[in-house]
Amino acid sequence: MTIAQSESDKIYDELIAAHTIMRRGVDLLRTALARAPTAPVEVDSCVGVGRWLIEFVHQHQRTESDLFWQPLADASPTDVGELHDLTVQHIQIDRELDQLASRLDHLEAGREAAAAQALRDLDVVRQTLSDHLDEEESLLKALFPMLEPALIRTLRTAAARCASSARPDLVLGLMSEPTPTIGYTSMLSSIPFPARALRPLLIARFHNRKRKLGLAA
Ligand SMILES: [Fe+2]
To answer: Residue 45: in which H helix or E strand, if any?
Structure first.
């Protein structure tokens, strides 16, 4: 017998899926930068993936702060301080991502040692982001069940509408490999049908992008 998932389980699993895309995206970029790319196609690919990742994280954090924090604070006033801490962490991550973005500009411009500097900046944001995601996942797992199911449905719809449509091959590829993330099915159903129908093509494009990064696909 299949047990129906609660709305709070669904929104939590979708959060984990988005977080997994970010964690895997950081690791993908890290592996590519660690190879010290010099070939134009590898440099272009690193810069492209890096800029996509930066915008994905910025957008995800805006969605959390704009959509989720107020209803969660209303549902659990004693956790307002914890939500405030998460917002402070978002600001720090945004700042570190902006630093990484300027390194990617240097990499694109062919500056010497830019890949090594970008790698160092990525490692800084990787640690901050990982600590933040761990803390956020633990808090939201406890708080989402305090929201009414109808409100969660509204929030899930709004969050799906806010999600960036850029580079769907990266979103699908990182969700899918090496194993489908928690929340995969739910996230996939929120992707517009035309993109979902192109899944095999997008996965092939993801593998091609990895090869252009100089990585095995
Ligand atoms: Fe967050």
So the answer is: helix 40-63
pLDDT in tens, 97-119: 999 999 999 999 988 899 999 99
Which domain, by its residues, includes 74?
7-166
Summarize pLDDT for 84-98 with one digit per residue, the tens: 999 999 999 999 999
Q: What is the domain count for the chain?
A: 1
| Distance from residue 73's CA to the centre of ligand 1 (Å) | 15
- Burial grade of 176 (CB within 10 A; 0-12, 13-18, 19 or more): middle
- pLDDT score at 111: 87
R_g (Cα) of the chain, nearest Å: 18
Q: pTM of the prediction? A: 0.93
Between CA 55 and CA 33 the distance in angstroms is 18
The percent helix, strand, coil of the chain (3-state, each to 5) is 80, 0, 20
* Residue 135: inside a domain: yes
For residue 19, give both structure tokens. Answer: 């977080």
In this structure, what CATH number is given to the domain that contains residue 120? 1.20.120.520
Cα–ligand 1 centroid distance for 62 (angstroms): 9
Q: What is the pLDDT of residues 59-82, one digit of tens each?
A: 999 999 999 999 999 999 999 999
What is the CA(129)–ligand 1 centre distance, in A? 8
